């Protein structure tokens, strides 16, 4: 029973940590501190790519649960995940792409979704 409680505490801490990490990433992106410069706007030549942030977080969460790390390491791992995701977003932005979260897209051609590529670069296969 104690092991089940520990697993629930770990899962709760992991979910909270990942949500916090995403909130920080979204704030940094929204304020233009990552992923572009405020007021620069997209150009006529800008491409668009789509990344499933929630899907990537789910995969990472499953990995961490399988690793059975202790609760004190959850925040550190969530921060590492957030930084790695921000780096991948910045790579596309620096290459001239507008990066859109899949949750904000109603429909798109499949070739615009680069989630698998990002997952591989982040070691989330």
Outline of the structure:
It contains four helices and two strands; from the N terminus they run H-E-H-H-E-H. The protein is mainly alpha-helical.
Describe the structure.
The structure is a single chain. With 125 residues, the chain is mostly helical. It has one domain (2-121). Helix content is 60%, strand content 8%. It is built from four helices and two strands. α1 (2-30) packs antiparallel against α2, α1 (2-30) runs parallel beside α3 and α2 runs antiparallel to α3 (71-94). The two termini are 32 Å apart.
User: Which class best fits the helix and strand makeup?
Assistant: mainly alpha
Report on the biggest sheet. 2 strands, parallel
Q: Roughly how many Å is the radius of gyration?
A: 16 Å
The domain tally reads 1
Compute the average pLDDT. 76
What sequence of helices (H) and strands (E) makes up the elements?
HEHHEH
Q: Would you report the number of β strands?
A: 2
The largest sheet has its strands arranged as 1-2
Strand residue percentage: 5-15%
In whole angstroms, how far apart are the ends?
A: 32 Å
* Amount of helix: 55-70%
How would you describe the shape? elongated
- What are the low-pLDDT stretches, counting only 5+ consecutive residues below 50? 36-44
Query: Helix count?
Result: 4
Keywords:
125 residues, mainly alpha, two-stranded parallel ribbon, 2 strands, 60% helix, 8% strand
């Amino acid at each position: 029973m104690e092991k089940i409680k520990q697993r629930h505490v770990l899962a709760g801490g992991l979910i909270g940590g990942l949500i916090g990490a995403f909130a920080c990433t979204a704030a940094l992106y929204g304020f233009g501190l990552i992923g572009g410069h405020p007021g620069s706007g997209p150009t006529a030549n800008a491409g668009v790519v789509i990344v499933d942030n929630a899907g990537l977080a789910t995969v990472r969460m499953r990995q961490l649960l399988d690793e059975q790390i202790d609760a004190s390491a959850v925040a550190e791992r969530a921060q590492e995940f957030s930084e790695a995701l921000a780096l991948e977003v910045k790579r596309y932005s620096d290459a001239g792409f507008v990066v859109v979260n899949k949750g904000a897209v109603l429909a798109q051609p499949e070739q615009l979704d680069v989630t698998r590529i990002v997952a591989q670069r982040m070691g989330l296969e």
